Amino acid sequence: IKERITSVQSDTTHAVNAMHTGTEEVQVGAGAIHAVGEQFDSIMHKVDAINTEMAAINAAMQNVAQGAEEIVHSAGEADAISQTAAAHMQTIASASESQSASSEEIAAASQALATLATDLQNTTQKFTL
Q1: How many CA atoms lie within 13 A of 118 on its CB side?
Q2: What angle do CA 22, 26, 29 make, to 5 degrees?
């Protein structure tokens, strides 16, 4: 009976030691799981920060795109104004040419009228009263 009791005590001691070892391993595993959980939390915070930065970048890109559209629109308006100004300049140039031609015609007509007046005066001097 003593041998059996000693054997049972020995087996119990081995079982207790195995339970202590198992408990320690569970505690180590729980610590590792806790550390992994903290790392996942850190990763999630970093992902959230990246998402926030991406949203800011997206907003900035939309502002840049809107600015580019405004520049294109302004360039189109400037082109239309330039074309209108060029058309007006062409009209002014044409009117100037027409006015110059009219001035030349008036000058020629004035010269002809002056010549005619001189001729008329010479002719009237031939008649004496």
Answers
A1: 6
A2: 135
Give the mean model confidence (pLDDT) for residues 69-96.
96
CA dist 35 and 114 (Å) reads: 116
Element at 97 (helix H, strand E): helix 2-126
Structure token digits, residue 27: 């505690």
CA torsion through residues 55, 60, 63, 69, sign: negative
pLDDT at 129 exceeding the cut of 70: no
- Measured in residues, the chain has a length of 129
44 Rama class: left (phi>0) / alpha (psi -120 to 50) / beta: alpha
User: How far, in Å, are 6, 43, 105 from residue 94 at the CA level?
Assistant: 129, 75, 17
pLDDT tens for 83-106 read 999 999 999 999 999 999 999 999
